[in-house]
Amino acid sequence: MRIGWATPFNVRSAIGKFSLIVCEEFRARGHDIEIIRIESGDELALPVIDTEISVIDAADCAVADYDSLIVNFGNHAPYHAHSVALAAQRAPVGIFHDMEMRDFEWGLVHRHDLQLPHLHGGKQELAARELADMVDPAARLTLATIAAMTCGAVIHGPHYQATVSAYCPGRVEVIPLCFPDTGTTRIAKPPGPGQRVAIFGALNDNKQPRRVLEALALLRPSIGPVDLHLIGSAEDRWRDPLLAQADKLGLKPPIFHGYVSDEKLQNILEDMHAICCLRYPVTEGGSASLVTALYRARPLVISDIASYAIVPDDLAHKVSYGNDPEDVADALMKIFSDPAKADRSAADARDWAGNRFSAETYVDSLEPLLLGIGRDSALAQVARQFVPAVTSPAHEPIMVSVAAVSEILDWMDESQTSL
Length: 419
Known about the structure:
Helix content is 45%, strand content 14%.
C-alpha cells in the first residue's frame, strides 16, 4: 500500500516524533510511505526530523497518487496549516490529536486569512443534539466540521468519540496514542538531595501549575520547601501570574527552564522526586507528556480522566479532575513519605508503557483500518463529485438536491455493505 502521511515534521513537534515511529513501522511492514509536511512560514523552516523516508512539502504532493492519505489534525495552525488544503483535495483518514480545535481555526483566520467553512446548519443541529462526550459545546462545531471532511478517523481516547463519530462519514477507531522514548538508556540513579516536582510541555493554565503551587503551600508546614520546575516554553502571560502566586503563598518562585532538548529534558526529569501531568480542562486526545513521563520512571501524579485514566491505578497517583489542591497535596505526601515504594511503582509504570505505547501496538490497530477504508474513501470522493450539482452559483446548498443525492449515497453504502 502506498501511503501519504501528512504531519508537522520538525524537531520540535511531538506529533512529528509520533509520526516518525509510526511511519517507520509501516515501512518495516512493507508499505511504501511518504511524509508530507503541513507546517507553514517559519515553522516550515524549522529543521526536519532525520529519517530515510521520503519527505515532501504539502504544496508538492499529488494526493491522488496514494492508496491512502492520512492527515494529522492538531490545534496549532502554524504546524497544521496545510491540513485543510489537503482535505479539500481528497477526503483523508484523519488522526485527531486534539478535541479542542478552535485555536487552529483562529490561526487559520489570523495568520492565513482562511475561513474554515462550517457545516451548513451545523450550529443549530448540534445545539439540538445531546452528544455524550467531553467536547466543549462551543468547540463542537469546529471538530465536527473537520471530521466531516474525512472518510475515516482515529481518535486517541473515547472522551471525544461521540462528536467525531456523529460527523465522520466512515469508520472511527479509538487507538491510544503511541510515542517514542526519546531518552538515553542508562542505569537509573536516585534524585539528588532536596525535594523537587516538575511540570513539562508547552506551559499554560490547563496543565494546572496554579493547583500544584497551592498543593505545595499545603505541604510546606509538614515537609518544608519543595522546588517546582517548569520545563517548556512559557509566555509572559502565564509566567508572571505564577511568580506572583508563589510570592503570595510564601513559596520560592518556580524555576522556569524554557524549551529544552530531549537530552536535557531527560536529565531534569530523572532528577525529580515527582512529575505532575494534570489537565483541566482536557483538550487533547492523547498526551505525549504522559507517555514521556512514564518512560522516565519517576513517580507520577495524573488526573483521573480521559486518556490519563488508562494508566493502571497502581502505577500512578490519580487525583480528581478539577482544581482541588488537597488531593494533589495528598498524592505528593505519599510520594515524599515513602520514596522507595513510589520509585518501585514508577519503574513498573515504565515497563507497562513500553508495550502499551509502542508503534507496533499502534500500527496493529491502524493498519486494518487503512486496508478496509477503500469503500468509505470511494463514497467520499463520489459525494464530492456531486457538489456542483447540489449547490448554487453562490456555493449555497440546494437542499432538495442535497437530500436526493444523500439518498443515492445511502443506497450505494447499503448496497456495498450487503455484498
